[in-house]
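Minutes, structural biology subgroup

Action item carried over from last meeting: produce the structure token record for Aldehyde dehydrogenase family protein (Billgrantia bachuensis). EB confirmed the sequence was re-checked against the source entry. Recorded below for completeness.
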Amino acid sequence: MPRSQALIGGEWVTTQATIEVEAPARGEAIARIARCQAEEVDAAVQAAGQAFSGQLGSWASWNARRRSEWLLAFAAAIEADHERLSALECADTGKPMTQARGDITACARYFRFYGGAADKLHGETIPFENDFAVMTLREPYGICAQIIPWNYPAQIFGRCVAAALAAGNTIVLKPAEDACLSVLRLAELALEQGLPPGVLNVVPGLGREAGAALAAHPGIDHLSFTGSPETGTLVTQAAAMHHVPVTMELGGKSPQILFGDADLGAALPFVVRGIIQNAGQTCSAGSRLLVQRDIAKEVLERLAERFETLLCDAGEADADCGPLINARQKAKLESRLEAARADGIRTLARGRLAEGAPSGGHFVVPQVLNDIPEGHEVLREELFGPVLAVQLFDDEAEALALANGTDFGLCAGIWTRDGGRQLRMAKGVRSGQVFVNNYGAAGGIELPFGGVGRSGYGREKGFEGLKSYTRIKTVAIRHG
Ligand code: TXE
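Output recorded by EB:
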């Protein structure tokens, strides 16, 4: 079982209070985690500062090549611990075991990718006056605060931690109170792997306590947040008090757009997977399906047939879909679905709970909603469950208007064989990522990711993600 303590300055620190963590598939306690307060957060920020400045440990003397070597070795350590980490992720988040395994693989890949990139990041020289030499230096920010959610703890740990370390920063990470066991195990592995003290500090706790204290701490130099737009606003306001730059990843309401000429055999499995993966609790979930009217009958029939076969069960049973993370998220989704039904929205098809599925789990079966009035909440708000909302369109212009009809803009999927339309739609869609004839690119560690509008700003993943953990210093030397 992972530690029920916080990691501060290379030591596991016991907090006065702890938080009980439950398995979402059973609603039963499986662990306790530390409940950090402002005091522990402050100690963690101090430790990260000392590690960065060289007062604690050897991190300040590590060059890019040494960081690269460490990140690559850590990727191998994650791979060696793969089954244990996967089992923790599966029990803690409720996601099917195959998905949990994929998440741990992705986590290791982040460390490989950024390990490979760490010693390839550099500044530029700039032609200026003849008696000048001008260069830019890419420098780490210093202490990076990272507040991460419960839906993909290990993957988001990889995305944030690997990039920040590759660039030479130190970190104070606040994992989510609902699921962070894999994160604690990863932190333990990082220490075992020889990461100097204070480079990675982990302060589990409640959002309103540890999270708020971290966002408002005057000692941090950069903040990245993944979570809801509402909490993102609070965090941004707190960081703004100290002029701390922020990266915000705030979810989405992403459309998958099926044109009449789409290869349905290729598209439909992506449509289904795009909404049931992680029980729909995915920022980039394809939660809206836009279908051209001339193929609507066939698409809806095939979709209904498939949804009726979908099974929900505990993660260990490795069914199509696991439970939601907690009773609060389930109650919120169910009340929205009830309101939708009261507004005349039809459930076209739904999956079911597997026989023998645990009775205390927070299960909501996958479902497809149809006949939705324009502008309805289920078309605008992130439901964060396995619920697909269908809309029909007649032509390209209408498809684009519907696709852009929410305040979010994280991802979009466009399914058509027409090359011109692929490009017109890709250019016209208001979102940070566009996939043509595929969706999600299997996580796309190498591909810059982030939103527009209410989905947030800043880019993570890929080389852009690495750059976002550095800032440019311009050095202009007049040599005469
Ligand atoms: O999110 P919160 P919640 C969306 C999704 C979901 C909704 C609510 O729509 O239904 O958010 O989920 C920490 N200061 N996403 O309530 O509150 C918290 O401890 C500082 C989208 O879980 O945003 C956790 O570590 N931090 C999403 C993190 O913020 C605070 C992933 C996220 O929690 C804080 C998760 C505060 N005042 C939810 N309050 C995505 N983009 O993938 C909470 N936190």
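Discussion: The two ends are 64 Å apart (CA to CA).
Next step: EB to file the record with the rest of the batch.
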